[in-house]
Amino acid sequence: MATPPQTTAPRTSLLFRKDPLASVEAQINLLNRTDLGVDESLLTTAASSPQNAFDLSLQSTGRFPLQASSVDTFQLNLGRVCNQTCIHCHVDAGPDRRENMDHATAELAMSVLAQTDIPVVDITGGAPEMCPEFKYIVRESRALGRKVLNRCNLTILFAKGFEDLPEFFLENEVEIICSLPHHRALNTDKQRGDGVFEKSIRALQMLNKLGYGKPGTGLRIVIVTNPVGAFLPAGQGSLEAEWKERLLETYGIEFNELFSITNMPISRYLEWLERTNNLDGYLRKLKDAYNPVAADGVMCKNTISVDWRGYLYDCDFNQMLELKTGFGSPTHLSDFDVSRLAKRRIVTNRHCFGCTAGSGSSCGGSLTE
Length: 369
Ligand code: SF4
Ligand code: SF4
Prior knowledge:
The protein is an alpha/beta fold. The protein has a domain at 69-264 and 298-341: Aldolase class I (TIM Barrel), CATH 3.20.20. The chain has 14 helices and eight strands. Helix 3 runs parallel beside helix 4. It starts with 23 loop residues before the first helix and ends in a 13-residue tail after the last helix. One iron/sulfur cluster (SF4) binds next to helix 12.
């Protein structure tokens, strides 16, 4: 049984503590060093051939190369600043980070959006609400008639200066995608920090009072859960039933849907895997659980991810590894071309096994349940 994350883990970003894994090159080297039991001797750098172990799995099931099929989601990562410092964070976010999207980039993002009919704007971070451009982006996206999802850590609703957020969400009909690793305090606080569970519960109760999560209001709350340890998530359907029952019975909380996601071996979760000697076993587990049906639904196929400087990526995970859109696709908002991006080839590496393991995993939860 894998060891769960320790509460004694440092509560600062990798960058702040000058950990070698703050460097994306070090992360990619570490991922590539692990023996996955795959014969990679025939890999070349030729674009027409598989370039990594994940590509080989795609090829063995007739799915290489991985291609986008549309751009339905414009995912904006507003920066790395966060009021929490969760152990598993793939963004290496925290209060000690300073990166935030500026107004010129936010304006550019909105003018790009206006020239497309991409229906969904998915806002993430860090704690995206801590970016000074957050409200501007929400209002502009709504004025353009787009659905807005906000990836909210819940505790931000109690941070000084952010108390008006619930009303703001309500006014703009923002869908709340919120993280809560477990319906028990101990498991949640181990991963996200002491006291996070209690605040998250209060935040959900507050949102319920505004009508969020209640039948017939159209105000959706989605809870995102992820394993507290080095294992794959259990089935999303059974977890959702369990969570709905427990949260309602114990705290009177209602929500619409549960997304169960796999922890990606990137950034602080990668550092934790290595520090606890779980890395080789976890990567092997992800690779051995490769599910071709999940590969057909990976989020990069219909999402474009934008960073705080306006650079483009196939997904938020590639963004954190600084793997920009490739193979001749536009790489920045300033040369955004939705028709080219909708049929782009996707940049892959070994971390992609995190999306295709078992039932599959994406920002929208399991891919095959
Ligand atoms: S996982 Fe989310 S809430 Fe936790 S530190 Fe990262 S961005 Fe912040
Ligand atoms: S990590 Fe990103 S690029 Fe790789 S399969 Fe998942 S969504 Fe696609």
